[in-house]
Amino acid sequence: MCHAHSKGARVVLKGDVSVKDIKNATFRASWIAKQVQLAKTQHMDGINLDIEQEVQRSSPEYYALTALVKETTDTFHREIKGSQVTFDVPWSSNCVGGRCYNYTEIAYACDFLFVMSYDERSLPWSQCIAGANSPYTQTLTGYEDYIKIGISPKKLVMGIPWYGVDYTCQNLSKDHVCTTAKHPCKDAVHQQVPYKLIMKQVNNSPSKSLWDKSQQSPYYHYQDKAGHFHQVWYDNPQSISLKAAYVQNRGLLGIGMWHANCLDYSEDATAKKQTEEMWKALRKKL
Where would I find the GH18 domain in this sequence (predicted)? Predict the structure, then answer.
C-alpha cells in the first residue's frame, strides 16, 4: 500500500451489495459505515461501486441505488479527506443487461463513472456470429449515449478490456465468419482469455493475427486437439490507441483497463515488450 501511494497511485475498495437490501435506509447507512471503517483500517483511498444487477426504471431499487451512491460519496468525502467514490456502468446507458439506472444522477453524485466498454457482443442480436469484445464504433456510440443524457465527458473514464473472447465455431467459413450456434445461441460456447495467453497462441495459429476493418479489432482462429475451430477476438495496442484518441479528442476524464493481471510481467524479452506496448497504448497522445 505504501509503495502504491509513493508512486501516486490510489487503491480503493470494491463495493457490491444487493439492490434488494439497500431499499432500507438503515441498512444502507450500516453498510456504508462498514465500508468506511474498512477503508480507514486498510488505509484505502475510497471505494469503487461495482453493482452489476438488474434494476427497472422508477422501481424502489432504482431510487435506492441512486441514494446509495450519494450517501456513500458524502460519507467517504467527509470521513476520509481526498477519498474517491466511483461507479461502474455498462458500455451504454440504454438498459444494457437490464441495468436501467438513473445514470445522470449517479454521475452527479459520485466522482466519476467507469464505463465498462467490454462484453459488448450479444450473440442473439448478432445471429450467433462471433465478433469483437469492444468494437470501435459501438464503443464510442456508448459514450455519446451517456453524454446525450447530460453527463459531462469529465465524469467518464473509458474502461477497455485486456482480455479477449474465445468462441468455439460450429462453422468457420472461408471469409472468417465464425458461427457459434443456431439461434437463439443457447448452445454457444465462449470464454474469456487473458492477453498474455493470446500472445502465446496467436503467432502459432494458422491465421496469425487478422484485422476486421468494420469493428476495428484484431482476431485469429485456431483448431483445438479435438478438431474444433475457434475464433478469438481481442484488443491490442492498435485497437486501444484508436479508442485512446477518442478519449483525448472528446475530453473524457481518462482511460483504464480490466484488468492489469491479464499481461505477462515476466522477464521474458518478448513478453516485456508486449506488456510495455499495452501500457503505452493507454498513455499515448495522438
Answer: 1-286
Rounded to a whole number of angstroms, the distance between the first and last alpha carbons of the chain is 33
Tell me which residues are annotated as active site.
52
The Cα 158–Cα 114 span in angstroms is 6
pLDDT at 285: 55
d(CA 276, CA 186): 38
Where does the chain have alpha helices with state H? 2-6, 25-41, 60-79, 103-109, 136-148, 195-202, 237-250, 269-283
Closest CA to 57 of 109, 99, 106, 115: 99
What is the CATH classification number for the domain harbouring 240? Answer: 3.20.20.80
Using DSSP's 3-state secondary structure scheme, residue 90 falls into: strand
What is the residue whose three cell numbers read 480507514? 40
23 vs 60: CA distance, rounded Å = 7
- Let me know if residue 91 belongs to a domain: yes
The residue range of the domain holding 31 is: 2-125+134-162+235-283
153-169 per-position pLDDT tens digit: 999 999 999 999 999 99
CA distance 251 to 238: 20
Instruction: Tell whether 183 is covered by a domain.
Output: no
169 phi/psi in degrees, rounded to 5:
-95, 125
pTM of the predicted structure, to 2 decimals: 0.97
Tell me if 27 is assigned to some domain.
Answer: yes
> Do 134 and 90 meet the contact criterion of CB atoms below 8 Å apart?
no
Domain total of the chain: 1
| Grid cell for residue 96 | 444494457
Residue 120: inside a domain: yes
Kindly report, residue by residue over 14-45, the tens digit of the pLDDT: 999 999 999 999 999 999 999 999 999 999 99
